[in-house]
Amino acid sequence: MAQQEDVFKKLISHCKEYGFVFPSSEIYDGLSAVYDYGQMGVELKNNLKKYWWDSMVLMHENIVGLDSAIFMHPTIWKASGHVDAFNDPLIDNKDSKKRYRADVLIEDQLAKYDDKIDKEIAKAAKRFGEAFDEAQFRATNPRVLENLQKKEALHQRFAEALNRNDLEALRQIILDEEIVCPVSGSKNWTDVRQFNLMFATEMGSTADGALKVYLRPETAQGIFVNYLNVQKTGRMKIPFGIAQIGKAFRNEIVARQFIFRMREFEQMEMQFFVKPGTELEWFAKWKETRLKWHKALGLGDHKYRFHDHDKLAHYANAATDIEFQLPFGFKEVEGIHSRTDFDLSSHEKYSGKSIKYFDPELNESYVPYVIETSIGVDRTFLSILAGTYEEETLAGGESRVLLHLPPALAPIKLAILPLVKKDGLPEKARQIIDELRFDFKCQYDEKDSIGKRYRRQDAIGTPFCATVDHDTLEDNSVTVRDRDSMEQIRVPIEELRSLISDKVDLKQLLRKQA
Ligand code: ATP
Questions:
Q1: Ligand 1 center to residue 315 CA distance, Å?
Q2: What kind and span of H or E run contains 268?
Q3: pLDDT tens track for 369-380
């Protein structure tokens, strides 16, 4: 674990050093849990958003896009339940004065039981070697069984407390499990209190009675209140979906862990409107579709798992998270929720306007049910970096740091490097860039040795480098070096476009899901 934390720290400094992510307002010592994306980060983030957008809107005839405003009528948040129920249970440690989410402290404790079990298994696997039968060991080893039983008992108690919204019971679990504050090491806890996560601000001047408005904590409500506009003007027939990418804001209680938990972040959400009664079928379908999207990134299938919710949100009748194995454990990157007709019915009630869908096939009107897929851009960005970051030792003892980014997402696709800064090589390199810049993002670099320039490109995940040397002037060919294998091949300049374009195209990722 300590080693993993170390990797995470290195990843954070790598992000800063190479222009992926900077702390916000850094010259004023930063603003807690707010980050800015630098010159490389924004390219990667835009590519990631396009990957998601195309997988929804390009690949599905019955999904269209939307870009709704961040500010919305405040009654929307009353109707959605966010004013009354968008809370997290918080608890303070009296000695360190640090604030925690009570549910997260308990989830960490659950993970500790899993860690203990995994350690027993790893130890036994080493001891028994080839002959080790993991299933049998799990079923019979007393220490494994004891930890499993403790975990299950805790899990059940936790789920019950959450479902009853019983804050005192959550506190009692923390006391009974002897959970200590990671900073002070003490068990001196306050009561658990509810904390609303929405940011509020005022619209209009106070003289005319300013309106209290919220910064949206999710993009989904913008889709709900527009669903009939889109359905009618787009002549959409159920089942259909609306996709949206945009900023969301939450006044998170504990905001550590870099861009995993931010106060301003970005979501990619798709609401899929279906006939009531068919929602669980669609829920299963979207679970599968979304997992494929993640797996196509090639970060390792074993790094993903589903986590079904114990406590369903006020609007849901089924919910699961797609979790990714980050350096600090398996964590949610995407939520898939069967939201029933809760939101639409509620908006109908609060607005007094009918938002029923007329189904021409059934010749009847109804409020559709909704399946939502909701993924965080920033968390996915983090999983991609964590899943592709590698410190590699090369033959000869040298080492390099590289990002094995999927080529379609890499900020720079091709670096063009003149071997020397003279003899017409820079001019030739520029000429190549001028031809290719319409097709994909190229970067020119002439400073330092070729080796150093390769390292810089490896560190930002550039899949290909082309070196222009003296022979280029004669044979009109360049040496193309592959980031991962470091293999070099000689390629005629006129073939560069087709060679690279195909490999860095988003189609490569989209096709894997067909
Ligand atoms: P958590 O339990 O971690 O607070 P959540 O269940 O509240 O997350 P959802 O409301 O399901 O999250 O939001 C959908 C997605 O939005 C999440 O899967 C995550 O990727 C992203 N997201 C939510 N909150 C944040 C945040 N504070 N910072 C970055 N991304 C976030």
A1: 16
A2: strand 264-274
A3: 999 999 999 999
pLDDT of residue 351: 96
Closest residue (by CA) to atom 12 of ligand 1? 335
Ligand 1 atom closest to Cα of residue 377: 20
Whole-number pLDDT of residue 120 = 92
Q: What atom in ligand 1 is closest to the CA of residue 376?
A: 20
CATH code given to domain 88-192: 3.30.40
pLDDT of residue 1: 52
Distance, CA 376 to ligand 1 centroid (Å)?
6
Residue 192: the pLDDT is 94
The span from the CA of 389 to the CA of 404, in Å, is: 7
Quick check: CB of 267 below 6 Å from ligand 1?
yes
CATH of 2-86+197-385, one of 3.40.50.300, 2.40.10.10, 3.30.930.10, 3.40.30.10: 3.30.930.10
Chain-centroid distance of CA 41 in Å reads: 14
Instruction: Give the H or E element holding residue 140.
Output: helix 134-140
- Sketch the domain layout of the chain as residue ranges: 2-86+197-385, 88-192, 394-511
**Which atom in ligand 1 lies closest to the alpha carbon of residue 321?**
18
Domain 394-511 CATH class label: alpha beta
CA-nearest of 87, 82, 89 to 103 is 89
User: For the chain, which residues score pLDDT lower than 50?
Assistant: none
- 353 in Cβ contact with 262 (< 8 Å): no
Name residue 454's beta-bridge partners: none
Contact assessment for residue 358 and residue 235, using Cβ atoms and an 8 Å cutoff: no
* Distance in Å, CA 334 to ligand 1 centroid: 7
The CA distance from 180 to 401, in Å, is 37
Helix (H) or strand (E) segment spanning residue 42: helix 39-53
DSSP 239: S
The predicted structure's pLDDT at residue 208: 66
Q: How far is CA 32 from the centre of its chain?
A: 19
Q: What is the Cα–Cα distance from 262 to 249, expressed in whole angstroms?
A: 8
Give yes or no for residue 376 CB within 6 A of ligand 1. yes
- Residue whose Cα lies nearest atom 7 of ligand 1: it is 335
- Which residue from 267, 308, 326, 378 has its CB within 8 A of the most atoms of ligand 1, so it is best to mutate? 267
Q: 305-331: buried (b, 16+ CB within 10 Å) or exposed (e) per residue?
A: eeeeeebeeebbebbbbbbbbbbbebb
Supply the pLDDT for residue 317.
Answer: 87
CA of 374, closest atom in ligand 1: 14
Q: E-assigned strands of 309-363?
A: 318-326, 329-340, 357-359
